[in-house]
Amino acid sequence: MRRNDRSKKVTIALAGQPNTGKSTVFNCLTGSNQHVGNWPGKTVEQKSGVFEYHDEMYTVVDLPGTYSLTANSLEEKIAMDFIIQDSPDVVVVVADASQMERSLYLLTEIQMLSVPVVVALNMMDVAEQMGNQIDIGKMGSLLGLPLVPLTASRRIGLDDLLKTIERTVSGKPEVSSFEQRLREDPLYHEIDTILGDIECEGLSLSWIISKTMEQDEHILSLVKQRISASRYSRLINILEQPQYGRLYMATLRYGWISGVLRESVSEGSDIRKVSRGKKFDRYATHPVWGKVIAVFMMISAFAVSMMIAMPLMGILQPLSMSLSRLVRDAFSSQVPWFGSMLSDGLIPGVTVSLMMLSFIIGVYFVFALLEDVGYIARLAFVFDTAMNKIGLHGKSSMPLFMSFGCNIAGVTATRVIDSWQQRMVTLVVVSIVPCLALWAVVSFMGAIFFSAAMPLLILSLIVVMVAHIYLTSYLLRRFIVPGETAGLIMELPPYHRPNWRTIFSYVWVQMKSFIRRAFTLISVLSLAVWALSYRSDGNMELSILASIGKFFDPVTSFLGLNWRLFIALLASIIAKEASLSVIAVLFGLGQGSSITSFIFSSTAVEKAELAGTIAQMVSPASALAFIFAFFFTIPCIGTVATIYSETKSLKWTIGSSLYYVCTSLIAGALAYRVGLLLF
Amino acid sequence: MSEQMIRLHQMKTGQRCIVENLLGRTRFLSRASSMGFVPKTVITMISNGKRGPLIVRLRDSEIAIGRKEADKIIVRGERP
Ligand SMILES: Nc1nc2c(ncn2[C@@H]2O[C@H](COP(=O)(O)OP(=O)(O)O)[C@@H](O)[C@H]2O)c(=O)[nH]1
Predict the structure, then answer these.
(1) Is the ipTM of this complex over 0.85?
(2) B66: domain CATH number?
(3) Measured between beta carbons, which residues in chain B are less than 8 angstroms from residue A490?
(4) Nearest to residue A409, comparing CAs of A442, A378, A367, A440?
(5) B78 min Cα distance to partner chain A (Å)
(6) Considering the domain boundaries, does residue A540 fall inside one?
C-alpha cells in the first residue's frame, strides 16, 4: 500500500464533553495505534493515534474532555490552544444524542474558532431506546454542519464518519448557522462596531466577540490592551446594560440549540425507561450507604489488582532468584563484581518492575472498568464533603484510600481526577499515606521499644500524617499549582454496560507507556544503589553508602539516628521491607553484598535475635525518630517510578522525592526531640 | 400555589423549579452555564438531604452540585 509522506498527514482533533463517548470514538478510529505522552510542557496526558483511510494517513489527537472552552482551567486552555495554534484540518466534536442540549454547548464554542467541524452524534442507541426520533438530515442542515449519527460502542456509523471527515478535509469550511444567528444579535453587532478589526493572538473575530459577550476575563484583558480607553469604557457600558448581563451569551447558545432540537427531534415519552441503575444509584449516592459501597468498591479494586498480580509474582520471584544465582555463579570466578551487578542490581530491579507491572495492570483494569461503567463520579460525590476539608475534591478519595494498600496503586489512581491542579496535589499527597509494607517495619520497631504504648504511637503517627497531608495540600495549592476552583458542579453520567474493548485497549496502551518509563527509571535507580552499596568482600560497613551515612553523621545525629539506622532509612527506597534486612546486616546479624539483593531475602531475618540487639544499641528516642522518619520518608522506588510514569515529568518526580526526604527528616528530628523529653 | 424566589438548595426532593438568575464570579458562571444552568432552565431536585451536595436533573442530565454553589443559583419554584 502506498504511504503518503508525513507532511501530507491529515490532523483530526477530537473534542467533546466528558462522558459523550469520546474515548470510545478515539479507540474506534485508531485501534491500537495509539501513543500516550504529555501535552508539550504540561503534565496533562495527551493521547494521539494514527490510521489510514483511502490511502491517506490521518493523525487523531484526543483533546481533553471539557464542558466548555475558556481559559479557566488548564484542560480547557490546552484544548483551545491546540485548535487555534496547531490548526487541525478538522475538529470532530462528539456529542451525546441522549443529552443533546448540554453536549452541543461545546459545539457552539468550537464553531467560533473558524476551523472545519464535523459533529459526531454518539449514543444513538440510547436515544433510540428513549424513543427520541432524530431527523439527522434536518438537524444537520439546521446546525449548518456535517452531522454523523454514531453508536461508537458497537462501531455503528464509523464508515460514515470517516467519509464525512474525508469530505470535510478537502472541502471548504462551512459558515455555521449559529454564527449567522449571532450576527443578527444586537449586542454582537454593537461589540463588532466597537472592536473594529481587532487582531488577537490569531483568534477569529467571532470568537473574540462571543467571549467578550460572555465577559470572559482573559479575552477582556486582551481586548483592553488593543483598543483605546474610551472605546473600552464604551464596551463595558454596553456589557453592563441590564438586558444583557454575564449570562446573556450562554442563554443565546442554549436558545439556538433548543431551536435546532425543537425542529429536528421529537422526544419520546419514556425517558425513565432507560435510566439504567436508578435503584442502585439511590444507594450509591446515599450519604451513608454510598460511602459503604464506595469503600467496598475500593477494597475490591485493590483485591482484584492483587489477585491478578499474585500468581505472576509467585512465578517471577523464584524464577529471577534462580536466574540471579545462576548469573552470580557464572561470573564468580572471573569477574565477581559484574556478576553481582547483574544478580544484585539489574535482575532485582527488573524483577521489581515486572512485579509492579503485574500489579499495576490490575489497577489500570479496575479503574478503566469503574470509569467506563460510570461509577467513579458517584464515589467522588459521596466523599466530596470529607475531601474538601483537606482542600481536595471527591475524586481524590479513591487514590488516597488505595494508597493505604500500596502507594503505587494510589499514584496510579490519581488518573481518575480530571482537574490538573487537583491531580498534581493528590499525586504528591498520596505517598504520605503509609502502605501495608511500611506497617511491617513500624510494628517491628515499635514492638521492641514501645510495646504497651503502641496504640499511642500509631495514633500519633496518624495525627502527624493528617497534619502533613493537610499542610502539603495547602502549600501546593498556595505556591506550586495555584488556581481557584469553581466548587462542586459535576455530572453524574448515566451508567453504561462496560465496553471491554475500550477497557482492554486502555490497559494495553497504559501498560506500554508504563514499561517505557518506569522500567528505565527502576533499572537505573537500582543499579545506582547497587553501585553505592557494593563491596566485593560483602562488608557493607565499608561501602560508599556507609561512608555517605557516616559523612552525614552530624546531620543524622541531630535526628538521633546513627549511620546504621540512617542507611536503613535510605534502603527503604528500594522497598519498605528491605529496611529490616539492612538493619539485620548492619547490626551484624545477616549478610549480603548489596542493599538491592534484599528484595529477595527480606523474610530471612531472625527477628527475635535482631530485636534484642537493636534494643541494646538504640535508644528509645532514636527509635522513635527512626519510626517517624521512616513513616514519612520517600516512597519506594516503585512509587517514584510510577510518579514518573504518571506525570512523565522528571521535575515533578525529583521535586516530590526531595520534598518527602525533607519532611521525613523534619518529622524524625521533631520526634527525636519529643522522645528526649519523654524517655 | 404561590411561586417565590428561593435558592436552589432550598428546594425539596422531587420539586421542580425554573432558574431565575445566577450569582457569583465569572469563573463559576462559565462553569455553571456550561453544565446547563442558565436562566429559564427547568430543574428537578433529585436528592436533597440535610447536608452534603445535592443532585438535580436538568437538560436530560444529572448534576451533583455543592450547597455553597447551589446557594448562588436563584430559582423560582413552588413554596417549599
Ligand atoms: N450505549 C452506548 N454507550 C456508549 C457509546 N459510546 C460510548 N459508550 C459508553 O459510554 C461510556 C463513556 O464513554 P467514554 O468513551 O469513556 O466517554 P468519554 O468520557 O467521553 O471519553 C462508556 O461506558 C462507553 O462504553 C454508544 O454509542 N452507545
Answers:
(1) yes
(2) 2.30.30.90
(3) 63-65
(4) A367
(5) 23
(6) yes
Tell whether A369 is covered by a domain.
no
The total of structural domains in chain A comes to 3
Ligand 1 centre distance from Cα of residue A142 (Å): 26
Q: Do A488 and B51 touch (CB under 8 A)?
A: no
- A16 within ligand 1 shell (Cβ under 6 A): yes
> What's the total number of domains in chain B?
1
Q: Which phi and psi angles does A36 have, rounded to 5°?
A: -105, 135
Where in the sequence is the domain holding B57, given as residue range(s)? 3-78
**DSSP symbol at A341:** I
What average pLDDT values come out for chain A (679 residues) when binned by 10 residues?
53 92 90 80 83 89 89 82 88 92 91 89 89 88 90 91 88 76 87 81 84 86 84 85 84 91 77 63 83 86 81 80 81 78 78 78 83 86 85 84 83 82 89 83 82 84 90 88 75 86 83 78 78 71 77 79 80 73 67 54 58 80 89 85 86 92 89 86
Query: Residue A157 belongs to a domain with what CATH number?
Result: 3.40.50.300
3-state secondary structure at position B5: strand
Are the beta carbons of A100 and B33 separated by less than 8 Å?
A: no
Question: Does residue A33 sit in the same domain as residue A164?
Answer: yes
Q: Which of A98, A216, A484 sits opposite B60 (nearest CB)?
A: A98
- Cα A540 to the chain's mean position, in Å? 39
A22 and A158 together in one domain: yes
A167 plus A187 within the same structural domain: no
Cβ A496 under 6 angstroms from ligand 1 = yes
Alpha helices in B1-80 (DSSP H): 26-34, 67-70
Q: Among B30, B64, B69, whose Cβ lies nearest the Cβ of A72?
A: B30
| Boundary-marking domain end, from A232, A266, A300 | A266
A499 Cα nearest atom in ligand 1: 25
- The model carries a pTM of 0.80
The C-alpha R_g of chain B, in whole angstroms, comes to 11
Please check whether residue B14 touches A, CB under 8 A.
Answer: no
Rounded to 5 degrees, what angle do the CA atoms A544, A547, A549 make?
A: 110
Which residues in chain A (325-354) have CB-CB distances under 8 A to chain B? none
Q: How far apart are CA A234 and CA A171, in angstroms?
A: 40
